[in-house]
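To: structure subgroup
Subject: Chain for Friday's discussion

All,

I'm putting the inputs and outputs inline so they're searchable in the archive.
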Amino acid sequence: MLRRIIALATTALIAGVATGCGNTDSWVQARSATGWAAQYADAANTSYSPIDGADALRLEWVRSVKGELAAQVALGSGNYLAVNGQTESGCSLMVWETNNRARQRWCTRMVQGGGFAGPLFDGFDNLYIGQPGAVQSYPPTQWVRWRRPVIGMPMTMRMLAPGNLLVVTHLGQVLVFDAQRGTVTGNSLDLVEGLDPTDSRRGLEDCRPARPECPVAAAPAYSAATGVIVTSLWEPGAEQPVLVGLRYRQGQTPQLTREWTSDAVGGGPLASPVLSADGATAYVNGRDERLWAINTEDGSARWSVPLDYLAQTPPSVTPGGLVIAGGGPGAKLRAIRDTADRGDEVWSRDDVSPLTTSSIAGVGYAVVRDGDGDTAGMALAVFALGDGHPMNSYPLPHAQGWPVGVSIGHDGRVVTATSDGRVYGFAPS
């Protein structure tokens, strides 16, 4: 009997040790930061944060990159902010402390020409960013973790499954990298044939205005729920761009496949696509001044609604299916409910002209025109999601150019910036 008790105890101890010593490597795999990890917040481009944002703010600091900006500010899981500036000399990629009056943490100079793509933070505050001909990663210090060549300029990157990084270049090369090692995993895809791999700067000037010589002019969208990747593509010689649907199957061969090509969006898509919470629908601006909902299974159109203006920035989407139309000159603040077979307008505000995509966190934030005529400035507006009514408005001192978007931190801080390089940091009041 004693032997049996000892044997059972020994078996239990071995089982306990085996369980306790299981593989726990998953915690070190890179995931998107809990702040505004990259342009449009997340891999699906929703411009949505799950926090309860503040409806009352105070301006904490204003700082300049001493150059130009064309992409949204990224906010990490801690207190770091990253901007991809275009400067004549000196630093261009900069990391600042959001809670310390934008004190600079570190900076370095990137190859110029890709300012329309922003940096990506993972949960360990490692940065991932592209420059013409290369993709690279930085740790929380300025020393390079890894650098790898690519064909073209990487758009703003996206995290796929934990530990894997999606890179789509403006010339249509699609790659998946191991975020830790910087090695390519699985197969790659070339959405455009016959490219010169030594000419990564070709067509860069067409990317920000989304013209034909830039095949992929906007950041792709990825849904972890379905593994679908949706990107715009202007194929050589085509009259207008199309949407392309790819599928990512981690660990399978092939890992990346091209599933469909769609010309359903009237006039072709403009700006980045945005994916619903279940990944089944992509919301896309059409050049025909309509908002389109596209079935991500086959690229067919679910519905479209007229906007009566050309939305130059992507829409934003809540997990519940509320879609706030994109912004731009002449835009109206409009909310549309996706009912699966049609889009129903919930409310519209003709008295608010959003110049940016609306960023959502319990309330909405957008940069709007402040005043009338040639002397009009810009202001950060806070609005209610229920009916769109303005809750507060904060002028952006000496703002020039055009706004590049609004980023919301995990701590409720809000950061916006303009193309002339000014960055504005707000804290909950």
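Points worth raising on Friday:
The CA atoms of residues 90 and 251 lie 42 Å apart.
The longest helix spans residues 2-20.

D.
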